[in-house]
Amino acid sequence: MLRPTRLVVLISGQGSLLAALLEAIEAGQLEAQVLAVGADRAAAGLARPKAQGIPTFVQRLPTGADRSVWDQALADQVAAYQPDLVVSAGFMKLVGKGFLDRFGGRFINTHPALLPSFPGAHAVRDALAAGVKVTGCTVFQVDQGVDTGPIIAQEPVLVAAGDDEDSLHERIKQVERRLLVRVIKEWSK
Ligand code: GRF
């Protein structure tokens, strides 16, 4: 019996992807343990781990602050939990060399587009603006670029007539939740 995969999850928003991971673990579908949840802001998604007694931390990056100091502090916070894998589930900050020196190769992110198409913070909006009929989501290993790391898994999502950013993003998130669980499950093998 392999021990559960030790995870630290980083978020910035609602935390619906984090919630999906916690639900998969609770349902016995994922042999993993969320050791802590970190954010770069007072993210709404921190409420659930707090309610479950999971340690949380916020590492803010004040405007004009030294980014490398922030990056090292974030890496220190994560390292304290000795994770096997760090998961960005909607974490909206780019980490730097310090963080990647310590967690590169075991830091994955999920993106709501079929990379390399539509990288960056507005992937769903950009896909709609481009008029694509098919978009999707990507789970990849974070590297020093913006959404440029080695792709691990992807799934397509059809754009429906009348989709706006919210409706399309919600449908993509439904696929992301499944894809992220599958990637972490395969990671643990
Ligand atoms: C996800 O679509 C993720 O790919 C993107 O932000 C969204 C996070 O959603 N970077 P949530 O905060 O987990 O609900």
Global outline: globular
Count of helical segments? 6
Q: Reading side by side through the largest sheet, how are the strands ordered?
A: 3-2-1-4-5-6-7
Structural class of the secondary elements?
alpha/beta
Say how many strands there are. 7
Largest sheet: 7 strands, mixed
Mean pLDDT over all positions: 96
Distance between the termini: 11 Å
Q: How does this model look, in words?
A:
Helix 2 (47-51) links the parallel strand 2 (32-39) and strand 3 (56-58). Helix 1 (16-26) crosses helix 6 (165-187) and helix 3 runs parallel beside helix 4. The protein has 189 residues and is α/β, with parallel strands linked by helices. The chain is 35% helix and 23% strand. The longest helix is centred in the C-terminal third of the chain and has 23 residues, at 165-187. The mean pLDDT is 96. It has helices at 16-26, 47-51, 67-79, 97-103, 123-130, 165-187, and strands spanning 5-11, 32-39, 56-58, 85-88, 107-111, 134-141, 151-158. It has a seven-stranded mixed β-sheet with strand order 3-2-1-4-5-6-7. The chain starts with a strand and ends with a helix. The structure holds 5-O-phosphono-beta-D-ribofuranosylamine. 5-O-phosphono-beta-D-ribofuranosylamine binds next to helix 1, strand 5 and helix 6.
